Amino acid sequence: MKPIIAPSILAADFANLQAQIEMLNQSAAGWIHCDIMDGRFVPNFSFGLPVLEAVHKHARKPLDVHLMIAEPQYYIENFKKAGASNITVHYEACTHLHRVVEQIKAVDCKAGVALNPHTPVALLEDIIQDIDLVCLMSVNPGFGGQKFITHTYPKVAALRELILAKNAQALIEIDGGVNEETAPLLLQHGADVLVAGSFVFQATNPLQTILNLSNLST
């Protein structure tokens, strides 16, 4: 089974954003990953609703929206209206996680939960059957181009075991440091979705880079 490749437009050339999105439309990517940062939950800002709306106008693939923001419960409907197909919130940002997951489903989006590198997958035991996606951060959230955290490999395996034990359907997404070296190992440990930012957009041939990733086997 081939993985879903979700290039992160955080690493795109924003001066030529329409052209970058049109390139992704022509590529083997399955999703377009959109990182939203608020300067509170993570120490950086990225882009918000107006840019997401602009991306949606040109995108021909589902927008995989990753909310690295505090109090995401107040913005779920707005991100759906802006074009999100998947909405992922951070475990660490949600005091009432189940309620937020239900909010996401109520607006007809796939519901994801992201875990920071230090957060154990066992904390998802009581909600894994209710979510469509788990995004494991393999770098500390907030900035692109960081070094991959190798502890992610056993973490992916542990999450796969939890999903199987609970007879759940959640996909495992990896965000951070995905490249030609880490991708095969991540897939061997049980990953389904690979987010790649700098590795794609800084490549000499982004289309071929995406194709190469998509041709790996899970």
Automatic annotation (TrEMBL):
Asked if the keyword Manganese belongs to this entry, the reply reads yes
Binding site residues for a divalent metal cation: H33, D35, H66, D175
Instruction: Tell me its cofactors.
Output: Co(2+); Mn(2+); a divalent metal cation; Fe(2+)
Q: Which GO terms describe its biological process?
A: pentose catabolic process; pentose-phosphate shunt
Q: Which UniProt keywords apply?
A: Carbohydrate metabolism, Cobalt, Isomerase, Manganese, Metal-binding, Zinc
This protein's record includes keyword Zinc: yes
Q: Where does substrate bind?
A: S8, H66, G142, F143, G144, G145, D175, G176, G177, G197, S198
InterPro entries per UniProt:
Aldolase_TIM (IPR013785), Ribul_P_3_epim (IPR026019), Ribul_P_3_epim-like (IPR000056), RibuloseP-bd_barrel (IPR011060)
EC assignment: the record states: 5.1.3.1
GO CC term (a single one): cytoplasm
Q: What's the top EC group for this one?
A: isomerase
Gene3D superfamilies with a match to the protein in the record:
Aldolase class I (3.20.20.70)
A Gene Ontology molecular function term for this protein is:
D-ribulose-phosphate 3-epimerase activity
Q: Which reaction does it catalyse?
A: D-ribulose 5-phosphate = D-xylulose 5-phosphate
- Entry note: cofactor: Binds 1 divalent metal cation per subunit.
Pathway in which this enzyme or protein is active: Carbohydrate degradation
Catalytic machinery residues: D35, D175
**Sequence similarity:** Belongs to the ribulose-phosphate 3-epimerase family.
- Function summary: Catalyzes the reversible epimerization of D-ribulose 5-phosphate to D-xylulose 5-phosphate.
Q: Which NCBIfam families match?
A: PRK05581.1-4, rpe
The protein in question is named Ribulose-phosphate 3-epimerase
Recorded source organism is Adhaeribacter pallidiroseus
